[in-house]
């Protein structure tokens, strides 16, 4: 019999504060998100909050839920890419609420192809202390092929001044070699340390 446990979502992740979990329940939750019709203006935020909430549960309640060691592979497919870079500009758009515009540049790979990237996102502090961001950007491969992206995510400020985000990205490219990206949804982890160095990893959402 599959063991079940209850885990509580952190504040700021909707009214569904309790979830009953088994080894595959979160997989079903993630799959169900795609089938629920939400207004375009709220959809990215709604999905990002659920992703953040699910990952929070997995990381804080893994032992009690008795998840398999390869739990991530049930929800996520291949790693699409990764990058390292540097924040280059921060601009205050509003002080109440605090809202920033951030630009960065990075180098990395997408589907094994080397890329140089750049992007800009806005980040707004919410009442519960979390952050919500939306952004867009582009990457250029060594062959000169462009990849553009748009996305959104939720995050938090960590001790020492670093920032951590989780969210989802959508891609467009005219490259035949990278055409798979046009139908991919990229779930990302994005970290910025106190000195402005960035790291990101992206997986395909099954």
Explain what this protein looks like in three dimensions.
- It is built from four helices and ten strands.
- The protein has two domains: 5-74, no CATH class; 76-205, Porin, CATH 2.40.160.
- By secondary structure, it is an alpha+beta fold.
- 19% of the residues lie in helices and 51% in strands.
- The longest helix is centred in the first third of the chain and has 21 residues, at 40-60.
Structural features:
single chain, 206 residues, alpha+beta, Porin, 4 helices, globular, disordered N terminus
Strand order of the largest sheet: 3-4-5-6-7-8-9-10
The ordered string of helix (H) and strand (E) elements is EEHHHHEEEEEEEE
SS field, number of helical segments: 4
The computed structural class is alpha+beta
Fold topology:
Elements: E1 5-8, E2 18-21, H1 25-33, H2 40-60, H3 62-65, H4 71-75, E3 76-95, E4 98-110, E5 113-125, E6 131-141, E7 146-157, E8 163-173, E9 185-192, E10 197-205
Antiparallel strand pairs: 1-2, 3-4, 3-10, 4-5, 5-6, 6-7, 7-8, 8-9, 9-10
Offer a concise description of the structure:
The chain is an alpha+beta fold. The chain has helices at residues 25-33, 40-60, 62-65, 71-75; strands at 5-8, 18-21, 76-95, 98-110, 113-125, 131-141, 146-157, 163-173, 185-192, 197-205.
């Amino acid at each position: 019999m599959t063991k079940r446990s209850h885990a509580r979502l952190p504040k700021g992740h909707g009214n569904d504060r309790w979830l009953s979990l088994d080894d595959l329940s979160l997989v079903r939750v993630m799959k169900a998100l795609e089938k629920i019709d939400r207004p375009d203006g709220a959809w990215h935020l709604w999905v990002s909050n659920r992703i953040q909430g699910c990952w929070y549960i997995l990381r804080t309640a893994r032992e009690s839920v008795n998840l398999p060691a390869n739990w991530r592979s049930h929800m996520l497919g291949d790693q699409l890419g990764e990058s390292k870079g540097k924040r280059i500009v921060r601009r205050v758009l509003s002080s109440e609420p605090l809202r920033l515009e951030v630009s960065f540049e990075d180098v990395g790979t997408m589907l094994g192809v080397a890329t140089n990237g750049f992007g800009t996102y806005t980040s707004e502090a919410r009442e519960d202390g979390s952050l919500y961001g939306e952004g867009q950007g582009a990457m250029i491969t060594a062959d000169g092929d462009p990849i553009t992206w748009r996305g959104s995510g939720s995050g938090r400020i960590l001790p020492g001044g670093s920032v951590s985000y989780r969210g989802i990205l959508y891609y467009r490219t005219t490259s035949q070699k990278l055409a798979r990206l046009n139908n991919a949804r990229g779930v990302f982890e994005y970290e910025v340390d106190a000195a402005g160095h960035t790291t990101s990893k992206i997986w395909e959402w099954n």
